[in-house]
Amino acid sequence: MNMSEETIDWYGDLDDDCCAQWGGMLLRAEWMNGGPKDEENGPIPFWWWAVSSMETGDVLDSSNYSRPSAHSGDEARNYAEAAARSWVVVKGYNKYSQLELHNKRKLKFRRL
Predict the structure, then answer these.
(1) Alpha helices (runs of H) in the chain, residue ranges in sequence order
(2) What's the CA gap between 56 and 14, in Å, rounded?
(3) What's the pTM?
(4) Is the pLDDT of residue 42 over 60?
(5) What CA–CA distance (Å, rounded) separates 62 from 72?
(6) Are strands 97-102 and 106-111 parallel, antiparallel or unpaired?
(7) What are the backbone angles phi and psi of residue 70, rounded to the nearest 5°?
(8) Dihedral angle, C-alpha 70, 72, 78, 80, nearest 10 °
(9) Which neighbouring-strand residues pair with 13?
């Protein structure tokens, strides 16, 4: 099975704040109170999502940078999964990449 086809398992409260670890990335989805105002119903709930490198902590993609905010947990998780999969397929980021310390002085990037 190709890594981009692997199942991504989420943990935490799927109705509030949840995470997944996949391919060296941390995927998050979180329900945010108080989005834009709807005159009849008050704040419109929305979901924030993000994908970060577990090695560096750098945010690779999030609802702050791209796709519109999600309006359900499923939608937020789908956006995060699509973003993570695009890093694997398009950008070549994968769990088989690693940093190696050579001669205790030089860092060298090696793709296995």
Answers:
(1) 73-89
(2) 25
(3) 0.72
(4) yes
(5) 15
(6) antiparallel
(7) -85, 155
(8) 50
(9) 17
Distance, C-alpha 81 to centroid of its chain:
6
Q: Under a CB-based contact definition with an 8 Å cutoff, are residues 61 and 71 in contact? A: no
Distance between CA atoms of residues 64 and 66, nearest Å: 6
The token pair that represents 108 in the structure block: 């060298």
pLDDT digits (tens, 9 = 90+) for 95-104: 444 333 223 3
**Average confidence (pLDDT) over 10-29:** 94
CB 11 within 8 A of CB 19: yes
Read off the tokens for 24: 């060296």
Is the CB of residue 62 less than 8 Å from the CB of residue 69? Answer: no
Residue bearing tokens 């989420």:
10
Tokens of 93: 């980021």
User: In the block, which residue shows the tokens 């935490």?
Assistant: 12
